[in-house]
């Protein structure tokens, strides 16, 4: 189970599920490449505030469960993970480049989702509605529109 990250003026628990497909959906994640990916991610954790709680891979894509801090935007996390893992995999496994012409290991696309440890959207909505020191709740915004 993940723990809160304590800083001098804040406390956070931000979890992300990130899925990154390999370029052209090539099946290059064999045992050796997967081990390199894991080791690079462990090293990233020591250099950046990106903590890998779980890493799971198929031959052509990787699932990451990542915890980070508010100063790291999801896009910055994605860019850091994808660029540094790709660079090290290409450096340590040059044979992978034969399957991935153009110099890219990952596709430009990805999937990311926030992960709630304590509650889902409905629980948080009810919690916010219940605030106010026994005063009548005053709704100031409620989005019913789903963009995606």
Brief descriptors of the model:
148 residues; alpha+beta; Alpha-Beta Plaits; four-stranded antiparallel beta sheet; two-stranded antiparallel ribbon
Can you tell me the number of structural domains?
1
Quaternary organisation of the protein chains: single chain
N→C terminal distance: 30 Å
For the largest beta sheet, what order do the strands appear in spatially? 4-5-3-6
Any idea what the shape is? elongated
CATH architecture: 2-Layer Sandwich
Indicate the CATH topology: Alpha-Beta Plaits
- Write down the CATH class: Alpha Beta
Q: What is the CATH superfamily classification?
A: Transposase IS200-like
Structural class by SSE content: alpha+beta
For the report, how would you describe the main beta sheet? 4 strands, antiparallel
Helix-strand pattern: EEEHEEHEH
Q: What's the gyration radius in Å? A: 19 Å
**How helix-rich are the residues, as a percent range?**
25-40%
Would you report the number of β strands? 6
How many DSSP helices?
3
Estimate the mean pLDDT confidence. Answer: 85
| Contiguous runs where pLDDT drops below 50 for at least 5 residues | none
Query: Beta fraction of the residues?
Result: 15-25%
């Amino acid at each position: 189970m993940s723990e809160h990250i304590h800083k001098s003026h804040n406390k956070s628990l931000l979890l992300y599920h990130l899925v990154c497909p390999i370029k052209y959906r090539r099946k290059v994640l064999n045992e050796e490449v997967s081990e390199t990916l894991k080791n690079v991610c462990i090293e990233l954790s020591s250099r950046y505030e990106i903590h890998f709680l779980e890493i799971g891979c198929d031959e052509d894509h990787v699932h990451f469960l990542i915890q980070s801090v508010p100063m790291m935007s999801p896009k910055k996390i994605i860019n850091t993970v994808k660029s540094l893992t790709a660079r090290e995999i290409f450096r340590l496994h040059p044979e992978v480049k034969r399957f991935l012409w153009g110099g890219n290991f990952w596709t430009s696309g990805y999937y990311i989702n926030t992960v709630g440890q304590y509650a889902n959207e409905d629980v948080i909505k009810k919690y916010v509605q219940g605030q106010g020191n026994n005063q009548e709740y005053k709704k100031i915004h409620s989005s019913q529109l789903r963009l995606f």
